[in-house]
Amino acid sequence: MPTITHLLYLHGFRSSPASAKATLMARAVAQRHPQVVWCCPQLPPSPRQAMDDVAALVADWPRAHMAVVGSSLGGFYASWVARQTGCKSVLLNPAVFPARDLARHIGAQTQWHQPEERFYFEPAFVDELRQLADEGRHTAGAELALIAQGDEVLDWREMRARYPAAQQTILPGNDHAISDFALHLDGVLAFLDLV
Questions:
Q1: Distance in angstroms (rounded) separating the CA atoms of residues 38 and 54
Q2: Residues 6 or more apart from 61 whose CB is under 8 A from it?
Q3: What is the DSSP track for 149-173?
Q4: Is residue 165 part of a domain?
């Protein structure tokens, strides 16, 4: 019997619920699994605020019947959620060392899908990422990691090493956005085991 009734999707740095992967997943879940509760929030720039908001969103969700999908920084966040709840997770080119990698992005930023939307990435946010990396009360549930060897932003070898217990799908070539995500969607949905 399928077990997942609640699904959370977390976008990456400078991204939004309008990202190609989030949109594709939202449409597939609505069409194929209309009874699943779907949530894909716009995350604030502060990592601590983002995780506080997410924790509040899923506070009443059934832990044994929820899962989280995250892309890039959202993959890091998805791991945090999975450690807090013990839920199943899908990690799409997940950020492994976001405090290190985003330290060079301190300052004014624009959103990828809405360039007119601006935000400021504060130095304190790097410290928040370090703190989140050390938090976790539970062992995460089953994990699936899609890792592109051609990722131009993150090192695929770091991703592979960070998730040794995950079911890993190493994608030859490809890119950070996993531009052919539609080809992998069926496998992701099968792993999630949605009602």
A1: 13
A2: 6, 37
A3: TT-SSS-HHHHHHH-TTSEEEEESS
A4: yes
* Number of domains observed in the structure of the chain: 1
Q: Which domain holds residue 24?
A: 6-192
HSE of 49, CA atoms in CB hemisphere, 13 A: 10
Q: Is 148 helix (H, G, I), strand (E, B) or coil?
A: strand
- Whether residue 21 lies inside any domain: the answer is yes
187: Cα within 13 Å, side-chain hemisphere: 15
What pLDDT is stored for residue 139 in this prediction? 77
- Would 11 be classed as within a structural domain? yes
CB 106 within 8 A of CB 126: yes
Compute mean pLDDT per 10 residues along the chain, 195 residues long, and list them.
91 92 98 98 96 98 97 97 95 97 86 74 94 81 97 96 96 95 97 96
Do residues 170 and 156 lie in contact, with contact meaning Cβ atoms separated by under 8 Å?
yes
